[in-house]
Amino acid sequence: MQLILVRHPQPLIAPGICYGRSDLAVAPVQLAQTLAALSTTLPQGLPLYSSPLQRCATLAAQLAAPLRSPAPLLDARIAEIDFGDWELRPWDDIARADIDAWAADLVNYHPGGGESVLQMASRIAAFYADLQRQQRDAVVICHAGAMRLLSACHAGLPPAEMALQAARHPHQIAYGATLVLQN
Asked: Which InterPro entries match (predicted)?
C-alpha cells in the first residue's frame, strides 16, 4: 500500500499567529499553484482523503476531477491539532510559562486547553489503521502535524511514541509538498 500525503497550500494568516484547528482559507493564487503542480504529479484514480478544514478540503475537491478520482472523503481524524484558547493568537502573546509547560510535557500537555499531541496521535493512528485494513493506495490531503504523525505511525510507533517523535522534530514540510509512505 502506498499513501501519498499532501500538505495544504499556505493559509491566509499573518506570520507568528498560532493556528491549528482554525478553519482558514488559502489565497486563490496559492491554491491554483498547488493544484497545477499536484495535478500533473499525483497518480490518477486513487481515492482522496482530506481533513475537513477548508485549506485541505478545497484543494481535495479541486484535485478530484483532474486526477479522475472520486469525490474526496473528509475525515476529521486527520485535522490539525486543536490549540484551544491559543488559536488565532500571536505566539508572542501566549504566556511564556504556558509555552514552557508544553515544552516540559510535549505528549500530554493540552495547549490552550485544547488537544494534546497524544490525543491527536491516537486519532491519526485510528485513521491509519482503517486505511491499512482497506489495503489500497490513497492520497491524503492534510496538515504538517498530521503528516509527521502518519509517518511515525507508518514506522510502527504506538501513539505515545508517535506524539513524542512528532513533537520533538520540527516539521520542515513545505506548503503543497508531498510525502510518500510505502509498504
From this structure: His_Pase_superF_clade-1 (IPR013078)
Q: What is the pLDDT of residue 1?
A: 87
Residue 136 confidence (pLDDT) above 90: no
Spatial separation of the C-alpha atoms in residues 101 and 43, rounded to whole Å? 43
Q: Domain containing 44: what range?
A: 2-182
- Asked whether 170 and 180 are in contact (CB, 8 A), the reply is no
pLDDT of residue 102 exceeding 80, the answer is yes
Is residue 86 within 8 A of residue 99, CB to CB? The reply is: no
Dist CA 98 CA 83 (whole Å) = 12
Mean pLDDT of the chain: 95
Give me the residues paired with residue 3 across strands.
138, 181
Query: Residue 87 and residue 105: Cα distance in Å, rounded?
Result: 19
CATH number of the domain residue 163 falls in: 3.40.50.1240
Distances (CA, A) of 139 to 45, 50, 170: 10, 8, 23
Q: Provide the number of structural domains found in the chain.
A: 1
